[in-house]
Amino acid sequence: RTPIAFAEEGQLVYLLGDTRDELGGSAWVQLAHGHLGGLPPKLDLQREKLLAEILIAASRDGMIDAAHDLSDGGLIQSATESALRGGKGMRLVVPEGLDPFVFLFSESAGRAIVSLPRSEELRFSEMCRARGLPAARIGVVDGDAVEVQGQFTLPLAELRDAGTGVIEALLA
After folding, report:
1. 37: which residues sit within 8 A by CB, 6+ positions away?
2. What percent of the chain has pLDDT over 90?
3. Are 123 and 63 spatial neighbours (Cβ–Cβ below 8 Å)?
4. What does pTM read for this prediction?
5. Sign for the pseudo-dihedral over CA of 138, 99, 68, 127
6. Is the dihedral of CA 122, 88, 5, 150 positive or negative?
């Protein structure tokens, strides 16, 4: 079992799969517009299978230390969950040519984020390339905040308080 916690400072963060402008039916649409309308992300079962095979092989062969699927809330939700679980922040960079909003909130299927030691970067990226799965280095595990370069920085303490304070506030 591969944990979701990104806990090792200095490890690289990779995004696996294709990010498309797929926000219909997303958590963002529901929150911003109060409905779940629009077209949901396209599902490609072959791509899902390929992603699963790569995650299993990479974990088994010691290439990755953590992995998290991208679904409800998109990349920013998964990155935040992994950072909070591991108690370590991360610095992320929006890939060139990709809209920051789409990068952070798209719920495109067949994607995951992983953390890996720098020593495994070449072997991991070569495996993904050989199998035809897009893999892009998007950041590094570091610090005590989730930072998206040029966009925002959210301290882990603030994120933790926001996540745990909701139930307490409802009960007060």
Report:
1. 24, 25, 29
2. 69
3. yes
4. 0.89
5. negative
6. negative
